[in-house]
Write a structure and sequence with these properties.
With 579 residues, the chain is an alpha/beta fold. It has one domain: Alkaline Phosphatase, subunit A. The strands form three sheets. It has a ten-stranded mixed sheet with strand order 7-6-5-4-8-1-9-10-2-11, sandwiched between helices. It has a four-stranded antiparallel sheet with strand order 13-14-15-16, with helices on one face. A hairpin with an 8-residue loop joins strand 14 and strand 15. The radius of gyration is 25 Å and the shape is globular. The N and C termini lie far apart (62 Å).
């Protein structure tokens, strides 16, 4: 080969290596690992030296660590809807309008609107096989039992194996309850009201103010909602512990101890099938860890330095390692993008029956899951690995968002971005390839429910990221924790004028910067305020699909396997022994 031809060949190889991904002659596979309630400070690569996460740390070493990666909400349902659609929950209606912040029953008509386009639906249009293994939490039935309008199989996923709602502490069989965690005296209060009501009815009947007919009617009127509440909230494990394989209910209630193990096996099974059919794939592994109840295989119990919370993290990390090994075994490792993240920050208020902490760490940030505005609830440990396409062993401190992955992956696989709606996600690939040095976002908007409580600003110059805050959580005195199980969007401390934080210099948001009589800082506040006003215009008047009454349990929607017992175990794993 002469020198000229060799030079041309070298130039072609270099051009191919440096060319945009969209022009490559292969479609990359995508694997998304989504943890549940994992804190920023819970992972070795992000500063933890007491919990063993070697597989997540290896991804960070072989990829890029994102230190300023944000969820769209500090609770599960709205956050997950944003990641799958690239749209803020305020635009899709997937935001709560009251005290209940997430979908709490499988048997209701709440779910991700069918008018929204999911990442899985986009992937299918360009020939991808798609699978979701694990937690869904974005609805099932819409109009009647069995319509499955919101089920993952009808939202773009070719295969689904997982729990349709969310892991709940009620499933622990230890006496723990979500309702009594929020309102410890709830049932005593109900019993008191019931006793006073009965006594009043007896008195009114005895003095002749009401007859037997009205007395019975008022008794039924009073007792029905109480019976409803007692039944619904005392049977959460049975009503919501629903494990599906595609459209089939295969387990009720869920056996939590083996759940993460099964998610690993089902993920590997999907990858093995892809080796046979040679299709590009999108696999979302949505772990039940580290949401309570915290249950693991026996070999992980008592092994960590952080009780069952640490055990659950180490089991999840082990599962990630097994899936990564399968990717390599089946020949997918080098042409697969891996995205590891968490749906929100760690739950600081979560405790077990004995008062032990069942939540993690969000250090160095303030607050946690369910906390309005502060970064502890929305800044999550995130790693992206894509061999040969993005560099390895790098760190990006620029602010990015989970909903950016919708746009980034859609462009990466050659899909089409919906043009008939606002897409909030930006293409992160130029930043990941270090072709750009600044965040694709100039402004980011942070909601709690329908309340816009903060706006983040990344100026074109300098390194500081600013955050203008109008509301902060109403914390317990001397603590960064709220009363009850979580914070409430409407129970906040409001600030007028707003507080300004330099998030880069003060990531814990402890020291607001005074901008009075400071022209430079006042200019920053003015820019943020103007952008916020324009953003609100683009949102219009949002309508929540997660209102109190919509979220309530609908008995006529309730799934049940093996009626009337409504109990079953997944036959695929009937011979598995947890040793």
């Amino acid at each position: 080969m002469d020198i000229q031809r060799f030079s041309v060949l070298v130039q072609c190889v270099v051009a191919a290596l440096l060319s945009p991904v969209g022009s490559l002659n292969f479609k990359p596979n995508i694997v998304i690992f989504l943890a549940d309630d994992l804190g920023y400070g819970d992972v070795g690569a992000f500063g933890n030296n007491t919990i063993r996460t070697p597989n997540i740390d290896a991804l960070a070493s072989d990829g890029i660590k994102l230190t300023h990666h944000l969820t769209a909400a500090s609770v599960c349902t709205p956050s997950r809807s944003a990641m799958l659609t690239g749209r803020l929950p305020i635009r899709t209606g997937m935001f709560p309008d009251g005290r209940i912040a997430v979908n709490i029953f499988a048997a209701n008509g709440v779910g991700l609107p069918t008018s929204e386009t999911t990442l899985a639906e986009v992937a299918k249009t360009v020939g991808y096989k798609t699978a979701l293994v694990g937690k869904w939490h974005l609805g099932m039935n819409r109009d009647y039992k069995g319509d499955m309008a919101f089920h993952p199989r009808n939202r773009g996923f070719d295969f689904y194996y997982g729990h349709i709602l969310t892991n709940m502490k009620d499933w622990s069989n230890e006496g723990d309850r979500v309702l009594t965690s929020q309102r410890p005296n709830m049932f005593y209060q109900m019993a008191t009201v019931f006793f006073v009501g009965i006594t009043t009815l007896i008195f009114l009947k005895k003095v002749g103010l009401i007859g037997w007919g009205l007395c019975v009617f008022l008794f039924v009127l009073m007792s029905t909602p109480m019976a409803y509440i007692m039944f619904a909230f005392n049977n959460m494990a049975w009503l919501n512990g629903l494990l599906y394989r595609d459209f089939e209910l295969v387990e009720q209630p869920i056996h939590l101890e083996t759940l993460s193990y099964r998610y690993t096996q089902e993920s590997i099974r999907f990858l093995r099938d892809r080796e046979r059919d040679n299709n590009p794939f999108l696999l979302v592994v949505s772990w039940d860890h580290v949401h309570t109840a915290l249950k693991t295989l026996k070999k992980f119990r008592g092994k960590s330095k952080h009780d069952r919370y640490g055990d659950a993290i180490e089991e999840m990390d082990s599962g990630i390692g097994d899936v990564m090994n399968a990717l390599d075994q089946f020949g997918f490792g080098r042409n697969t993008m891996i995205y590891f993240t968490s749906d929100n920050g760690a739950h600081l208020e979560e405790t077990g029956m004995k008062g032990q902490s069942d939540g993690g760490s969000n250090l160095p940030f303030r607050g946690g899951k369910g906390h309005p505005t502060v970064d502890g609830g929305i800044r999550v440990p995130t790693v992206i690995r894509f061999p040969g396409i993005i560099p390895r062993g790098k760190v990006i401190d620029e602010p990015t968002q989970q909903l950016d992955m919708f746009t980034t992956i859609t462009k990466l696989i050659g899909g089409k971005i919906p043009s008939d709606r606002v897409i909030d996600g930006k293409d992160m690939l130029p930043l990941l390839q270090f072709k750009e040095s600044k965040s694709p976002h100039k402004f980011m908007y942070h909601y709690c429910g329908e309340h816009l409580q903060a706006t983040r600003y990344r100026p074109p110059q300098g390194s500081s990221v600013w955050k203008l805050v109008t509301e902060l959580p109403n914390y317990k005195p001397g603590e960064d924790k709220c009363y009850g199980l979580a914070c409430i969007c409407s129970n906040t401390i409001k600030y007028d004028p707003p507080l300004l934080f330099d998030i880069t210099a003060d990531p814990g948001e402890r020291n607001p910067v005074s901008y009075k009589n400071n022209k430079h800082l006042q200019d920053i506040v003015n820019k943020i305020s103007a952008a916020t006003a324009e953003h609100k215009k683009s949102v219009g008047t949002p309508e929540s699909r997660m209102t109190f009454f919509k979220l309530l349990w609908r008995p006529w929607f309730q799934p049940c396997c093996n009626f009337p017992s409504c109990t079953c175990s997944d036959p695929v794993y009937k011979d598995f022994v947890d040793e």
